[in-house]
């Protein structure tokens, strides 16, 4: 009987040990909250040393931007999609800002960097923190893990910089997967509730600036146009500027600055998109209509090219011209262009001008609208475009030269 009891006790103990071993992973530390370096990656180690040098040489830094590749990207000045340096110079350089963004970082990597001198000796007025998308992305961590990781980073910033205001941004929207989007929404909902009334911390979700008509505007992300054609994750030049502008009012308040009545950010600028050389056939004179003298000019072909697009102009389009009263002239062209890789895009280009006592203008301003199918050129859809049109040649060589720009 005693031997049976001994065997039973040993079996029970063995089962208990096995059960404890099976439960161990559930009790393991959250990887999002455990500081981790990436010193095995030479570029990462070099950037960490560069940041430490910058911290030592700029003890008067007033603003820190802490995060991953989206913050790191402010170092880039690559036209047209990753030209972020002008944004940095406009919004952050005047504030004596330091860029503490590292491509690919998670909350664990930020914790390690904070613990290894990247804010040592600094007393900034504000920190902009944008982190977490790699936790829920390539690391495939749960929303709960990412939430705890972000909490840990915030807590460490509060400990190291007790007098600094923290502007915590929600994870930006992406188009990588439905499951990541679901996790990111859960994280942002948590952060909004968690930091609703926490001294020193202001939570801001700016995700709405990346949506259009209720859907993510993937045209303002650079990933789909990069060689690997990735899903939308990193804002392009236009998207990054929208982000900076969305942050600006809250950041101005946290920095203790007087709001600017107007700024360069409020003044539209034009980015060159592409130019066309269009060939035309002799016009068909319709005659006098209730609106004026109507003339229809066939579009026979031509070519176009720009930094991100090139191809040919398809024959078969028309330019509906109207000479109205008072010396005013208008046009309304509707035609198709085809890119070198076979994508057909509709262009509707309209404009008008009126003669004055002064010399007749050498060019006509137009307002084009593009309709591109979903894919590599959908970035043409939406936005405000301006065109400049000049007449070229005569007779059999009659045509127009048009340059298109996008306003931002």
Number of strands: 19
* CATH topology category name of the largest domain: Rossmann fold
Low-confidence residue ranges: 1-27
Specify the CATH architecture of the largest domain. 3-Layer(aba) Sandwich
**Overall 3D geometry?**
elongated
- Cα radius of gyration in angstroms: 29 Å
- Helix content, binned percent: 25-40%
Topology:
Elements: H1 2-27, H2 42-57, E1 63-67, H3 69-72, E2 77-78, E3 82-83, H4 85-91, E4 97-101, H5 107-115, E5 126-130, H6 133-136, H7 143-160, E6 165-169, H8 178-194, E7 201-204, E8 211-212, E9 215-216, H9 237-254, E10 270-280, E11 284-289, E12 292-305, E13 310-313, E14 317-323, E15 328-339, E16 344-354, E17 364-371, E18 384-392, E19 399-407
Parallel strand pairs: 1-4, 1-5, 5-6, 6-7
Antiparallel strand pairs: 2-3, 8-9, 10-12, 10-19, 11-12, 12-13, 12-14, 13-15, 14-15, 15-16, 16-17, 17-18, 18-19
Textual characterization of the structure:
It is a single chain. The chain folds into 2 domains: 30-267, Rossmann fold; 272-407, Porin (Beta Barrel), CATH 2.40.160.20. It has helices at residues 2-27, 42-57, 69-72, 85-91, 107-115, 133-136, 143-160, 178-194, 237-254; strands at 63-67, 77-78, 82-83, 97-101, 126-130, 165-169, 201-204, 211-212, 215-216, 270-280, 284-289, 292-305, 310-313, 317-323, 328-339, 344-354, 364-371, 384-392, 399-407. The strands form 4 sheets. Strands 10, 11, 12, 13, 14, 15, 16, 17, 18 and 19 form a 10-stranded antiparallel β-sheet that branches. Strands 4-1-5-6-7 form a 5-stranded parallel β-sheet, sandwiched between helices. Strands 2-3 form a two-stranded antiparallel sheet. The chain is elongated and about 80 Å long. Strand 6, helix 8 (178-194) and strand 7 form a beta-alpha-beta unit. The protein contains 9 helices and 19 strands. With 408 residues, the chain is α+β, with helices and mostly antiparallel strands.
């Amino acid at each position: 009987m005693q031997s049976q009891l001994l065997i039973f006790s040993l079996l029970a103990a063995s089962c208990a040990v096995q059960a404890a071993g099976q439960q161990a992973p559930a009790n393991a530390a959250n990887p999002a909250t455990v500081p981790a370096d990436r010193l095995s990656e030479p570029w990462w180690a070099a950037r960490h040393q560069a940041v430490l040098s910058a911290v030592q040489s700029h003890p008067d830094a007033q603003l820190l931007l802490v995060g991953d590749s989206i913050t790191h990207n402010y170092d880039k000045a690559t036209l047209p999609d990753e030209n972020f340096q002008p944004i940095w110079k406009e919004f952050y350089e005047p504030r004596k800002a330091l860029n503490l963004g590292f491509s690919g970082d998670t909350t664990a990597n930020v914790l390690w960097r904070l613990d290894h001198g990247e804010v040592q000796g600094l007393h900034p007025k504000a920190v902009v923190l944008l982190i977490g998308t790699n936790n829920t992305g390539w690391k495939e961590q749960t929303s709960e893990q990412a939430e705890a990781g972000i909490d840990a980073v915030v807590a460490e910033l509060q400990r190291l910089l007790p007098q600094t205001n923290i502007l915590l941004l929600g994870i930006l929207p992406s188009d990588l997967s439905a499951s990541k989007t679901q996790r990111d929404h859960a994280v942002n909902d948590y952060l909004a509730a968690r930091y609703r009334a926490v001294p020193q911390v202001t939570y801001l979700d700016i995700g709405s600036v990346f949506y259009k008509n209720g859907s993510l505007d993937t045209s303002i992300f650079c990933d789909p146009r990069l060689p690997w054609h990735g899903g939308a994750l990193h804002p392009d030049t236009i998207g990054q500027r929208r982000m900076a502008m969305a942050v600006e009012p809250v950041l101005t308040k946290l920095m203790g600055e007087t709001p600017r009545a107007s700024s360069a950010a409020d003044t539209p600028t034009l980015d060159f998109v592409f130019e066309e050389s269009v060939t035309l056939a002799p016009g068909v004179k319709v005659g006098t209509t209730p609106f004026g003298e109507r003339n229809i000019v066939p579009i026979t072909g031509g070519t176009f090219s720009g930094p991100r697009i090139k191809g040919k102009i398809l024959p078969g389009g028309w330019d509906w011209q109207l000479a109205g009263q008072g010396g005013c002239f208008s046009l309304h062209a509707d035609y198709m262009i085809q890119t070198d890789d076979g994508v057909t895009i509709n262009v509707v280009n309209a404009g008008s001008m009126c003669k004055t006592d002064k010399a007749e203008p050498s060019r006509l301003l137009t307002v084009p609208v593009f309709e591109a199918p979903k894919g590599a050129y959908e970035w043409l859809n939406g936005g405000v475009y301006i065109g400049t049109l000049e007449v070229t040649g005569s007779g059999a060589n009659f045509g127009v030269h048009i340059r298109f720009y996008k306003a931002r």
